[in-house]
Amino acid sequence: MISMIDILSGAPFWAWLVLAYGLTVGIRGLQPRKISMSKNVLLTGFFLYLSVSSLIHASRQFPSIGIVWLIAAAIGATISYCFLTPPPIAELSDRRGLMVQGSVTSLIIFPIIFMAKFTYGVMVAIAPDMLLNIGFEVVFFTITGLSTGILVGRTTCYLRHYVELNPGS
Questions:
Q1: Where in the sequence is the domain holding 92, given as residue range(s)?
Q2: Burial class (CB in 10 A: 0-12, 13-18, 19+), 148
Q3: H helical segments located in the chain
Q4: 36-63 burial by CB neighbour count: b if 16+ within 10 A, else e?
Q5: Does the pLDDT of residue 35 top 80, yes or no?
Q6: How many structural domains comprise the chain?
Q7: What is the pLDDT of residues 64-118, one digit of tens each?
Q8: How far apart (Å, rounded) are the C-alpha atoms in residues 54 and 132?
Q9: Residue closest to 99 by CA, chosen among 158, 155, 152
């Protein structure tokens, strides 16, 4: 039987760097800050890619799992767009981004995404038969769908504010 210590100590070093980066971004996100729209869109696109790539793999075994992910992503995006994304404080003078209020969203969402992907990777390595369990897949893709939706909703909200503040863009 593999213990939690074996799992954590067997994780590659880069995985802990990714977690540290996510926590750093989350902690910075607690304070008002300048955000670059291009970086925000790229980061959201990266996490969307990670989520969809896992989804494509799982949909071979469970074709309807995409519906679960899509519903969760839509719920996450709606919650983020309507409730979790504070309006910007101001546009940046260079018109490349926004000054936004601090929010706890990134500090919560990045570790959740990390833990979901980490758990999925561990399951692939030590218990691949769990990937054939529809219950595991539903929980995993609900979590990743909600997380991805929250990032997409936040980015969409920021883009809307950016366009409103820069009508000629």
A1: 4-165
A2: buried
A3: 4-10, 13-28, 37-59, 65-79, 105-126, 134-165
A4: ebeebeebbeebbebbbebbeebbeebe
A5: yes
A6: 1
A7: 999 999 999 999 999 999 998 888 887 666 677 888 888 999 899 989 988 888 8
A8: 14
A9: 158
